[in-house]
Amino acid sequence: MKTLLVLCLCISASLADVLEYDDYDLDPKDKGTTAIDPRGHRPSSRGRDAYVPSGGAPPPVSGRGRYRGRPTAAPVTPVEEESVEQPDAGGCTHASKQMGVICPTGCELKDTVRKQERNIKPTVADLKRSVDELSRNTNSVSRYIDGLSDELRERQKVTDGNGQLVGEYTNDIESQHAFIKEAVNTNFPSNIRILQGILQSIRTKILRVNTALVAQRDKCTTQCTVSCPIPVVSGKECEDIFRKGGTESQMYYIRPDSFFKPYRVYCDQTTLDGGWTTIQNRMDGSVDFGRRWDEYRRGFGNIAFDTGKKYCNTPGEYWLGNDRISQLTKMGPTEILFDMEDWTGAKTQARYQQFTVQGETSNYILSIDGYSGTAGDTLLTGATELFGENRTMTIHNGMMFSTYDRDNDKWVPGDPMKQCSKEDGGGWWYHRCHSANPNGRYYWGGSYTKYMAKHGTDDGMVWMNWKGSWYSLKSMCMKIRPFFQQ
Ligand SMILES: *[C@@H]1O[C@H](CO)[C@@H](O)[C@H](O)[C@H]1NC(C)=O
Which residue of 129, 149, 308, 387 has the lowest C-beta tally within 10 Å? Predict the structure, then answer.
């Protein structure tokens, strides 16, 4: 017992030693003076770290675009979608090489199994209680029978000389005694045996679940794949696919140009006439967005899942990758749509007619223009609840991309204690710091406080001009489409 305790202490101590990227030391003495005003911006203390607004953003790619307007009649004969049969050995570990790696952990399966285990446990406990109680009852009935037997013996002694009447009475008691004894000796035990059988089978099931859990945990250490048939129709991007007849929202292969290898992406072919290439999606917090520069460059997360429809019709949480986003948006004028939802199911949108992301050499500078929508234009005008310089600090247009390991924001550049990405949860085009934080931390339920936030800042999945700093949205999806005249 003692060694166990020591072991536990050691484990928790070593866990505490593992610092996360944003667990940098804040000198507690500093807390009073460097208190952060937790509303997107970081006000400047005059003289010490004056804020100099930047010189404006490069103009986004504009013009008429590579596509004519869509033909008025919707495509009548969609291309036959042949689904490729994928070898399937069950679960998460097997898919054809062609499908590549999609789901990073397979932990959803683990969670499901865990949930099931949770449901079974109370049932087993109940059953066990019933069995125990039945055993207790059986014992007391047995004692009663014993008593009855004794009494019978007594009575037999007494009635020995007492003739017929008592004899009949005794016979009666005897038959009752036999009946009860039979019940106790055969019925009760057989009931108990049945219950014990059930208990045993549930125990076996739990054992199997445990084994499966352990196996799953092992599998979770390596990446695993999801198998979904990918439609044969493919194209430069989702608009191209739509025009070729791929009008179902699901996962497709796209190949924007011949220098890129084809890659998987989720196409939203229903929202606002479809043709949208999803570059970011959040909806359940299953993927961690506090990631390094390299990961944001390459992209991360799960493109899509098959939820029983035999194709990948449900987008996962992912970031497409800055290189791909930049490449797609530089091919021609591109519009972007932010689709978001709060925890009551209310939905809103922000749409920008022009959206361009420069390449890595310029740290993926963001250029954006042409707002329309209901969510509020945070990216161009900043947080409307702030004023003057404080609002300017929350404009995202013209900003470079920052991650916790690559600080390109406008909050005292070079000061490792003043990095937006470290405090606000994700990689983003931080200024000083944000009015929109789509890659921030995922908070269940929406409202959160600065005491829940790791650094007291509004690090949630925030869109200030819709829900303010202290409300983290339920879902957020960023999708792009080549601009064309409607
Ligand atoms: C900016 O924010 C700080 C702190 O919240 C406040 O003291 C200051 O008055 C604000 N400036 C403007 C122009 O609103």
Answer: 308
